[in-house]
Input
Amino acid sequence: DIQMTQSPSSLSASVGDRVTITCQASQDISNYLNWYQQKPGKAPKLLIYDASNLETGVPSRFSGSGSGTDFTFTISSLQPEDIATYYCQQYDNLPHFGGGTKVEIK
Amino acid sequence: EVQLVESGGGLVQPGGSLRLSCAASGFTVSSNYMSWVRQAPGKGLEWVSVIYSGGSTYYADSVKGRFTISRDNSKNTLYLQMNSLRAEDTAVYYCARVRLPVDSAFDIWGQGTMVTVSS
Output
């Protein structure tokens, strides 16, 4: 099974800051990497698919990059409504989610 | 409107059984890859099971042999039969559509249903 290592597990940043989250796969997964946002008590929401493609309707301050084993998710300018936990997910053979990154406002 | 609505969660004793349902609207369950994902209280997301449009099914090692994913095409509904439940199965269970083979994203999610395994 391919394992996903997501870091950091939590972070605190100010409104307007650039926020970066990384996800590392235990083996090459090409660009089969997706990113989700989950707010408390809500279902996850797809933000980025295939490593770098923005899902329809998602604000452009969210972006993703990477391929192979190393991936990055970025919020270019953190907004109060971005407070949530973010997860990466791969689907090479069977799906696996990263451990999540809780983003808080400083 | 495209949506998924789960039901069937509740309190069950260890060793008991429960069947979760996930009713779809706006798209056809049998033409898509459908999955169950769970989240234990205060924990991250854990993939549980998937059923492909062709009918193949796959399970996480943690539930293999105890859980069964299925669908009823006439009701456009996905199910998860859970047997021999354990305390560690306590979680919110989400159903989701997987956008294979276009990409591998879980693009539509239900609101979740809570399963509590406790005596």
Summary: Chain B has no helices and eleven strands.
